[in-house]
What we know:
Blueprint lengths: L23 H12 L6 E8 L9 E2 L3 H9 L5 H9 L4 H8 L6 E4 L5 E2 L6 E6 H5 L2 H21 L10 E3 L8 H13 L4 E2 L2 H7 L11 H6 L3 H11 L4 E4 L5 H19 L8 E6 L4 H14 L6 E4 L5 H11 L5 E4 L1 H4 L9 E9 L5 E3 L16 E7 L5 E8 L10 E5 L8 E4 L3 E4 L2 E5 L2 E2 L6 H15 L14 E5 H14 L5
Parallel strand pairs: 6-7, 6-11, 8-9, 9-10, 10-11, 15-21
Antiparallel strand pairs: 1-5, 1-12, 2-4, 3-5, 3-19, 12-13, 14-15, 14-18, 16-17, 16-21, 19-20
Helix pairs in contact: 3-4, 6-7, 7-8, 10-11
Amino acid sequence: MSxxxxxxxxxDEDYDNPAMVTDFYEFTMANCLFLHGFKDKIMVFDMFxxxxxxxxxxxxxxxxxxxxxFLLNYHFTEKDLIYLKSKGMSDAxxxxxxxxxxxxxxxxxxxxxxCYPQVPMVRIECDMIGAILIETYLLQTMNFHSxxxxxxxxxxxxxxxxxRKVMEFGTRRAQGESAGNDGAYAAILGGCIGTxxxxxxxxxxxxxxxxxxxxxSFIEFxxxxxxxxxxxxxxxxxxxxxxxxxxxxFDSGLPNLITIDDELxxxxxxxxxxxxxxxRIDSGDLAxxxxxxxxxxxxxxxxxxxxxxxxxxxxxxxxxMEIYEDAHFDSYGVGENLITSATDPxxxxxxxxxxxxxxxxxxxxxxxxxxxxxxxxxxxxLMAWRVYDENGQGQCDxxxxxxxxxEEGKPIIVYDFSPDAFHKRREIIPLKVEKLLxxxxxxxxxxxxxxxxSEKKAYIKDQLENKVWExxxxxxxxxxxxxxxxxxxxxxxxxxxSELHGGTL
Length: 505
């Protein structure tokens, strides 16, 4: 093999073309297929996941907007090409990449759709280059956004129909800048009312609102707690939120809080907006402190002062305080357990080749069989449908071939995908059907309107309140949503597995 000569590549920590967020093997495969004459071969990939995080009964599909914008702006720069040449990529391949633009099609669940294992979240149909090289970015984007949005629905109470005011406070413990920004966005979709992250608001707008007041260091800076409180109240009389536990919640924090509020009343007697708005505690027994503080503030004639809790909270800790101790804070600041989804920090989405488009326009199914039958994928160019019951709630999802139609009021034979299903084959008559995979991009062109953050937030809330079985929302032992295959999909999978691997699934 002849030595490859190119301009030296100089590392640049600030360089961030997202097209290069790619595992190297994607380039080695693409270069090989290109040199063997397959650059125009159309491939179909599905992105799906096998298990809900935290053993949940559902997940929230999120990240589609970011992925859409990535594909519409997909390109390689001169710096990228220099680097790739240094890694052994062919000149012909690099010349092709220099002019390459993404011209494929992307079908996906609408951002914010409640989703379930095995059901495609994203379907990509594109020429070989544009199908293979986007895998890493697609998975990184969809997995992380979906993970945090799902976690947020639990912490914010959307999953229990008991909404809480939750602020995302996890930027400082997020795994890097992008995780902090993207996590804040996803948390807002999942029901949070704000974030501590200023850059997130600058990127996404006022719907991702940056919030916050003071830290312990601010109070420590002053000679005493009262003077710190007084300085803040003088500066922000319409937004006074104080932190009580720098020294002692009840020996100093509470009496100083009352003093400051009394001073504001005296200074602004006719302006009820210039009062102490809230007080936060960040340590100790939160539930016990809440009850003592609430009682004391009410007795002092200050029921309008809201109480805020923080300190390594998650959905289980909050739920425990509310259910078992009747401690209902007015709002919560949740940090690392939200932004990292600490209880289950991986959303296991995968991206698999499921079909190749032939010269005659037909699609040949492709299948990863595996020696582990549970990892055998569903082959073919697929479509996903949701069937609703008489109450308008999701009864099951059906995976069909793209050329099949699931119709309301017409019987259809389906096969339960679950290996534990007692009745594998059954006939159902759908009352109401929704086609789940919708076009975002077709032939490289945007074909849909991307909804606003508030619209996506409302969409998630509506689904969890009205369109999902209560049993799927349980914290413990949730109902497993039914996922069915049409007869055509089921037989294609069985036959292909037998042909390629031997035996039956």
